Structures are given as C-alpha cells and as structure tokens.
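As a warm-up, study this chain.
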Amino acid sequence: MRGSIDGLGSAQPLGLMLPALFADDELAQRFTAGLDEVLAPFLNVLDCLEAYFDPSLAPLDFTAWLGGWVGAETEQDTAAGAPSGGPPPAGA
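Now compare it with the structure written out below.
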C-alpha cells in the first residue's frame, strides 16, 4: 500500500499558512515541515482521487490490493501461472 515517499513535497506547505507571528519562528517552521512530510502522501492521494476510480489509471499496487479484497485476478496473477479457478485446460 501507499507509504512515505522520500522527497515528496506538499503542494500546500503548512508553514506558509501560519500567521505572521509564527512565520519567522524556526521551531514552528520545523514542526510544520514534519507535518508536511507525514501528510504529503495522504494529500497526494486526495489530489489524484479521481484516478483511483478508474482501473486503467489507478496505481498497480492499489488495484492489486483492492482485487485481493474481492478475489479478482490481475494480469500479473495469470501470467505468473496462478490458478484461475476455472476448469483445467483440455488435455491436462
């Protein structure tokens, strides 16, 4: 599933939204930078949410995870020789 991605920046850094009193405070800026690092993957998913509803656009790890919930096969499963659940091929 989704996790932290090194170097992924936030589209809307929290430090820039602080009032002027805290904008020059180094501790407040470092604290909000840490929050930005934690929240960036979540905000990135929300920014691209419509892609998660289209199987051709959704990330492969997400479709595989979702397919596991409903028992759907992926092309990777059939290419790897995973059983399809159907009848065996003729002559087998």
